[in-house]
Amino acid sequence: MARTYNVVTYGCQMNVHDSERISGLLEQAGYVRAAGGDETPDIVVFNTCAVRENADNRLYGNLGRLRPVKDKHPEMQIAVGGCLAQKDRGDIVRKAPWVDVVFGTHNIGSLPVLLERARHNAAAEVEILESLDVFPSTLPTRRESTYAGWVSISVGCNNTCTFCIVPSLRGKEKDRRPGDILSEVRALVDEGVLEVTLLGQNVNSYGVEFGDRLAFGKLLRACGEIDGLERVRFTSPHPKDFTDDVIAAMAETPNVCHSLHMPLQSGSDAVLRAMRRSYRAERYLGIIEKVRAAMPDAAITTDIIVGFPGETDADFERTLDVVRESRFSSAFTFQYSKRPGTPAATMEGQLPKQVVQERYDRLIACVEEITWAENKKLVGQDVEVLVAVGEGRKDERTGRMSGRARDGRLVHFDAGSLAGQIRPGDIVHTAVTYAAPHHLNADGEPLSHRRTRAGDAFEAGRSPRTPGVLLGLPTIGAPAVTPAPTSGCAAR
Asked: What is the pLDDT of residue 143?
């Protein structure tokens, strides 16, 4: 029988996409995904995050719970990869000696070999590289969704934010060539995928490696020329690199969604300076103003950190001011988490937990007041929903289905007389009847329903599997011998 696997993912969209590659590699090597339930997988892979302190606790807690399982099933293998593995390296095996393999962010492709080596040698294998051995998109991928796909346009980051450990774990920015990105997008569309999200630690600095500062806007426009691609999103841009040509590309390319996730982090110029974020509140608000002038319907989301070292009451109030002025449709809010190895971890002015918690609670209340007010403006409007699976945790109890509007908002809708006919991946038009801070409800009869190839794929149980997309970059070593031509002018 084929050996089974399970991948557990923590962290950002980059990690989610990396886990799709891990699954693709394991299936290429002959493993099959564990069915779940009471079955004990032969291999459990933890793809970790290191951005927040609780990521460490979650990993080691889960490893601890797996120890008695491994004692009962000694042939089971446990692998730990991702950012925390890159950071902790051999410490993982020291803290949890029942772990079989540790691999980093730069050598995902080594996992099948490391598992075999660990099994053969009956000893833990730890392999952490300091730079990429291959660009991740050259690896096979088992896609999780039939209707939406991630496509990496770059890996790594050239910024030096004082709170962030990512650049030291993911390395310097490496950009893919536009043709390779578009080839992967077309491969997904050929599989029935309707929506693609372009991924990078800083997507709008794309092109820096090959000297084209307008490359990202050009890439968005090129995606607009791909037949069958209905929605294009991207995450995450950095305000310092956000240029007017990107706004124009978003506004003028019909399949680029009018949704923008742009991290603010703080509304205080003093805190932004201490964070080493090379923009100020005025610059940030200026971008928001330009986006809304070009796309009045744009939904803008953000990231905000509360309690950065040295943050004063006045600094926090300034953040609230910028939040009120920006009118975000959603915000990911975080209490500052000290990460060893970052400059902020040793800064003076570390704030007491109770101060950070009080500010955090106030920020949440402010954000929800605004998001609720913004969502209420959509009551009575027609929205186009790409039907999803797993977005509505209460769908089974309420009898609704769920999906995302073009602007990224979560919509729970009643299928009405079309119940049983609408599949994840299909497109529904419906009218909003109720707004909450984090979602919209549409409880009337759908206005229209369009069956799609993505819905067909979901119904057939076909998950897109894409082979590695080659980069065309130079390789190390002697070039391969070119076969002698057998026909044509060169053969004469």
From this structure: 84
Tokens of 92: 């993982």
First to last CA, the chain: 54
Q: Which amino acid is at 473?
A: L
For the stretch 31-56, pLDDT in tens is 999 987 667 899 999 999 887 777 77
129-142 in b/e form (b: 16+ CB < 10 A) is: eeebebbbbbbbbb
Residue 365 to residues 125, 267, 314, 371, 483: CA-CA distances in angstroms?
47, 17, 18, 10, 68
| CA angle, 342 then 346 then 349, to 5° | 125
Q: Does 449 score more than 70 pLDDT?
A: yes
- Taking residue 471's Cβ as centre, other Cβ atoms within 10 Å add up to 17
Helix (H, G, I), strand (E, B) or coil at 75: coil
Contacts of 163 (CB under 8 A, 6+ apart): 275, 305, 308, 336, 339, 342, 344
Task: Say how many C-beta atoms besides its own lie within 10 A of residue 5's C-beta.
Answer: 23
DSSP state, residue 256: B
- With contact defined as beta carbons under 8 Å apart, do 118 and 77 qualify? yes
pTM for this prediction: 0.84
| Residues 214-225 pLDDT 10s | 999 999 999 999
Please give the backbone phi and psi of residue 65, each rounded to the nearest 5 degrees, phi first. -70, -25
Residue whose C-alpha is closest to residue 292's, from 321, 328, 320, 238: 328
Q: Which of 138, 144, 147 is nearest to 174 (CA)?
A: 138
